[in-house]
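If your schedule permits, I should be very grateful for your opinion on a structural question. The matter concerns a single protein, recorded as an amino acid sequence and a row of backbone structure tokens. Could you please explain, in whatever detail you think fit, how the structure tokens follow from the sequence? I set the record out below, with my sincere thanks for your time.

——
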Amino acid sequence: MGGMERKNGCTGKAGSGFEKEEQKANTAPAPAPVVKEKPVEVVTKNQAINKEQKKELQKQQRQFQQAEEALNKNKALLKTLEAQLADPAIYADKDKFLEVEQGYKKAAEENKQLEKKYEEVFTLLMELEEQAG
């Protein structure tokens, strides 16, 4: 017979079934694919507190912005009323003067309240930002 004979009588020619069987026997079975499980998210007490703090901080930031806008709007009104009170034509009309003067007093009182609210919200906002880190 041509080629090299083996003990079992098979030839070692390329492409014979014997070589394929021998290769299969020498290779280890492929390892099972590794399936990575997603870690389970555990919400701790601190995370819940941080979420609440963040929510409160955002709320106070909105309130601060609203207080600031209201204060600026009222200050603009005060300037307008002051300019009207400085106008000599207003003094010529007693009713108009009293109307503008009442409006100014009302706006000045509202300004005090808005400034107080602004300061309270600002202080609370600073405390919350300090706690948040």
